[in-house]
Design brief:
By secondary structure, the chain is an alpha+beta fold. The chain folds into two domains: about 60 residues, no CATH class; about 140 residues, no CATH class.
Length: about 200
């Protein structure tokens, strides 16, 4: 949950360390006492840490969060997204934010269902919610844990503000759910062979 601040904190820490080191080394040139310079600059660095970290985080976030376009899975290069993205995904639109992401991409139905099946086969026994619990209203649970949506869907809620028009017919699929709530929900439009998913992580 705290991962978004790790990189800005590391950058801030090392920049302040360099500042303290530089001032301490250069102190005799300015006729300052090195010991006193080290103590004062260290205290000053401590006071600067939080505001500097916030400023650096603002800059870093412009590059790591937002909406991005990728031709294929191999271009994404983000392990948090790759945990929920099929390797056969193409023409990917990705909206990344600190606690998750939203994705839209081209993929065949068989590729997507095989991918979700694979998630359940590998991680299903550790899921906080079983596949059956997702679809209690059904008398038969497909092995891949997917179904056509009946009634109002969660599509608009999951992709609010992105301008992605909800297709008329969708298939809904779920990944296993981690104990902390991490996981993904998938929607598939057979007509356009387009998948949408929202992944959450903590």
């Amino acid at each position: 949950m705290l991962w978004p601040i790790v990189l800005p904190a590391e950058i801030t820490f090392w920049l302040l360390v360099l500042m303290v080191g530089f001032l301490t080394v250069r102190a005799p040139v300015w006729k300052w006492k090195r010991g006193r310079t080290f103590v004062v600059s260290s205290l000053f660095a401590g006071l600067l840490f939080v505001p500097s970290c916030l400023g650096i985080m603002e800059i870093v976030d412009r590059f790591r969060f937002g909406t991005f376009q990728y031709a294929s899975f191999s271009d994404v290069n983000d392990f948090r997204v790759e945990r929920y993205l099929p390797t056969t995904a193409r023409e990917i639109t990705l909206k990344k934010f600190p606690m998750g992401h939203q994705a839209k991409y081209s993929i065949s139905e068989s590729e997507l269902t095989q991918y979700v099946d694979g998630l359940w086969k590998r991680f299903g026994e550790h899921s906080a919610i079983s596949g059956e619990e997702f679809y209690q209203s059904q008398t038969h649970i497909p092995a891949e844990y997917h179904r056509p949506l009946d009634g109002p869907s969660q599509f608009e809620l999951k992709f609010d503000g992105l301008g992605w028009k909800e297709p008329e017919h969708l298939i809904e699929m779920h990944s296993p759910v981690e104990n902390d709530g991490g996981g993904a929900v998938y929607f598939y439009d057979r007509q356009t062979q387009t998948a949408y998913h929202r992944g959450n992580y903590w």
